[in-house]
């Protein structure tokens, strides 16, 4: 998947530990989790899922079975989890959506098989307790920070932000437009970053990579990255309509496998839609022109 690890955090509490995220639903879950669980001085009291992506929620069923703990997940995120992983045709729908935005049929055909490839590793917990903005979880406050995922939640307490993939230190979280997603994910993400800046946490614990010692500065860097990327996306347009796929080739090049092309096209679509909403581009069905 491009990143070879995901962090699952353990937060101490009076009634036991809170586990944040579960990783993929890989084989031999007991062998992977057993040494960790046996090394704790208290049980896992609850499991919190930051967002529905496979590397964060895919092992939810296993983690719940091994710990006996209840699972908590953002309300909007669980609804999207059901729309995506609860439907056997999710890769078909995604391939069709990207095909409508210019993806060549041969690449779309490769993506149509993804559900069979990844499906066995995506087993999120069913019927979790849903969380909303401002809810409390063992002394931590729930924040809704959409962008990387429509229903992405984070936890904050005493200046520490358990960030999931909302903030990453060495790479920028991918922000893409997908079927049935919020209409302006990049706009949502930029607003979430500004909210993080206002919140001014002193430490962020990301889903990948090292802890972020200056989350405010990192949020500002990502905002600036996307401003530059928006300018580059607009520069790739002209008076003649171009599909999002054509624009993605200008932005990301053509040396990508099918999975990489999927991310490139979805991210390009998110930037194009942000330009449209800012009055800097015009949409013509599945193609775009400079405004």
CATH superfamily: Ribonuclease Z/Hydroxyacylglutathione hydrolase-like
Strand residue content: 15-25%
Oligomeric description of these chains: single chain
Count of alpha and pi helical runs: 11
N/C terminus separation = 36 Å
Sheet bearing the most strands, described?
A: 5 strands, mixed
Briefly note the CATH topology name: Metallo-beta-lactamase, Chain A
Residue stretches low in confidence (pLDDT < 50, at least 5 long) are none
What CATH architecture do you see? 4-Layer Sandwich
Rg result: 19 Å
**How would you spell out the order of helices and strands?**
EEHEHHEHHHHEEEEEHEHEHHEE
Structure commentary:
There is one protein chain. Helix 5 packs antiparallel against helix 6, helix 6 (105-111) crosses helix 11 (258-277) and helix 8 (185-199) packs antiparallel against helix 9 (215-235). The model has no long low-confidence stretch (mean pLDDT 95). A five-stranded mixed β-sheet has the order 1-2-3-4-5. A five-stranded mixed β-sheet has the order 6-7-8-9-10, with no helix packed on it. It starts with 8 loop residues before the first strand and ends with a strand. The longest helix has 21 residues, at 215-235. By secondary structure, it is α/β, with parallel strands linked by helices. The chain has one domain: 4-Layer Sandwich (Metallo-beta-lactamase, Chain A). The protein has helices spanning 29-38, 54-57, 60-67, 75-85, 90-100, 105-111, 114-118, 185-199, 215-235, 244-252, 258-277; strands at 9-13, 16-20, 44-49, 70-74, 129-131, 136-137, 140-144, 153-157, 160-164, 203-206, 242-243, 281-284, 287-290.
């Amino acid at each position: 998947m491009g990143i070879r690890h995901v962090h699952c955090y353990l937060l101490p509490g009076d009634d036991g530990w809170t586990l944040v995220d579960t990783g993929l639903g890989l084989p031999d879950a007991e062998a992977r989790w057993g040494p960790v669980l046996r090394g704790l001085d208290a049980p896992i009291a609850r499991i919190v899922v930051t967002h529905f992506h496979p590397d964060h929620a895919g092992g939810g069923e296993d983690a719940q079975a091994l710990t006996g703990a209840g699972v908590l997940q953002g309300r909007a995120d669980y609804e999207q989890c059901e729309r995506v992983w609860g439907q056997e045709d999710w890769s078909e729908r995604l391939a069709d959506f990207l095909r409508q935005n210019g993806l060549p049929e041969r690449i779309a055909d490769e993506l149509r098989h993804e559900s069979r490839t990844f499906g066995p590793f995506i087993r999120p917990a069913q019927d979790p307790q849903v969380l909303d903005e401002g809810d409390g979880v063992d002394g931590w406050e729930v924040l809704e920070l959409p962008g990387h995922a429509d229903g992405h939640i984070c936890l904050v307490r005493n200046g520490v932000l358990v960030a999931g993939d909302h903030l990453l230190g060495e790479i920028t979280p991918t922000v893409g437009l997908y079927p049935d997603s919020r209409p302006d994910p990049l706009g949502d993400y930029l607003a979430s970053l500004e909210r993080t800046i206002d919140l001014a946490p002193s430490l962020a614990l990301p889903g990948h990579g090292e802890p972020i010692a200056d989350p405010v500065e990192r949020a500002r860097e990502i905002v600036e990255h996307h401003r530059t990327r928006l300018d580059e996306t607009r520069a790739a347009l002209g008076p003649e309509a171009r599909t999002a796929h054509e624009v993605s080739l200008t932005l990301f090049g053509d040396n990508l496998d099918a999975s990489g092309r999927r991310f490139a096209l979805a991210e390009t679509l998110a930037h194009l839609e942000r330009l449209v909403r800012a009055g800097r581009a015009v949409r013509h069905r599945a193609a775009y022109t400079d405004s």
